[in-house]
């Protein structure tokens, strides 16, 4: 079933997109991860955040072109943008 939301504030059709996340020399898609972030250590030195890749879910976002409101979802299955 297509997911084609409208803005709840101004009723404009929302535009599909994603939230890029910059990292070392690359830009990746943002993901949701369950739980509280825990600092990862490598030989006692901070090396980022502990993650379980299998539990990560891509974040999908729809933006209202009129007011800028974002609707953000992290669902294992969809929602996906409506195919034109
Ligand atoms: Zn709006």
Explain this structure.
With 84 residues, the chain is mainly β. It has one domain (15-73). The chain has no helices and 9 strands. Strands 1-8-9 form a 3-stranded antiparallel beta sheet, with no helix packed on it. It has a two-stranded antiparallel sheet with strand order 2-3. The chain is elongated, with a radius of gyration of 16 Å. Bound molecules: zinc ion (ZN). Zinc ion (ZN) binds at residues 7, 9-10, 12, 64, 66-67, 69.
Task: Please write out the topology.
Elements: E1 15-17, E2 20-23, E3 26-29, E4 31-32, E5 39-42, E6 45-49, E7 57-58, E8 60-63, E9 70-73
Antiparallel strand pairs: 1-8, 2-3, 4-7, 5-6, 8-9
The protein binds zinc ion (ZN).
Residues 7, 9-10, 12, 64, 66-67, 69 line the site of zinc ion.
Question: Summary?
Answer:
The protein has 84 residues and is an all-beta fold. The protein is built from no helices and nine strands. A hairpin with a 2-residue loop joins strand 5 and strand 6 (45-49).
Radius of gyration: 16 Å
Widest sheet: strand order? 1-8-9
Distance between the termini: 13 Å
For the record, the count of structural domains works out to 1
Sheet having the most strands: 3 strands, antiparallel
Bound molecules: zinc ion
**Overall spatial form:** elongated
Number of extended strands: 9
Structural class, from helix and strand content?
A: mainly beta
Strand fraction band? 35-45%
Salient structural properties:
single chain, 84 residues, mainly beta, elongated, binds zinc ion
